[in-house]
């Protein structure tokens, strides 16, 4: 997930590297024989996965994970997996697959395998119609205030790439959107897909996402390295879920807007 700090990701990868060659992952045959697949989900990441008032899991990852398990024909065991634990849990065979907005990058790919993309994350600018700017560089100017959340990697990115703008930090995604809605900040530079649902709390504000993105990341499902049969089955299931519109509909259900850049299904994965 892009929004987590880079240091946390590096620490997690270091742990994974120490164990990657020591544990044999469960094969698809093992999963079918057990009748259950262990799916890693981030326990503190609304609206990907969160417990509701009844203590049950809900969110985008939960519905997609259940659909994938149904396609395979097994039950689900949900395994809470914090962001830095995702790769170590895969290489130590504590989970069979990892959800939780797992962004594809070269360092992780040295340790795990990926399915085809499940969804995207778009680093972009969220602002209002009263603020001018056609790309992120237009927001790098004196007098421009950007809202962001403490601990986000994009804080450092913004300070480096948009030095003329000032940054105001808050504690939650909702507070970040509230700052812009109340006119205390001009824009948000972040993975905007995760912020769109909060804009619905301010229907009188004329929101807009700057059309030109800064960067588009592709998030996929992580599986243990070399677990080819499981990867292939998941790819086929994902193609079907994408083709029938389930992925996009589920995303919009939980995030209040379509993905800024949808994944185009390709049968020749």
State the low-pLDDT regions, or none: 1-21
Mean pLDDT: 91
Helix content: 25-40%
Q: How much β-strand is present in the residues? A: 25-35%
With helices defined by DSSP (H or I, 4 residues minimum), what is the helix count?
A: 10
Give a verbal description of the structure:
The protein has 269 residues and is of the alpha/beta class. Helix content is 34%, strand content 25%. The chain contains 10 helices and 11 strands. The strands form 2 sheets. Strands 1, 4, 5, 6, 7, 8, 9, 10 and 11 form a 9-stranded mixed beta sheet that branches. It has a two-stranded antiparallel ribbon with strand order 2-3. The longest helix is centred in the last third of the chain and has 16 residues. The protein is elongated.
Summarize this structure briefly:
With 269 residues, this protein is of the alpha/beta class. The chain is 34% helix and 25% strand.
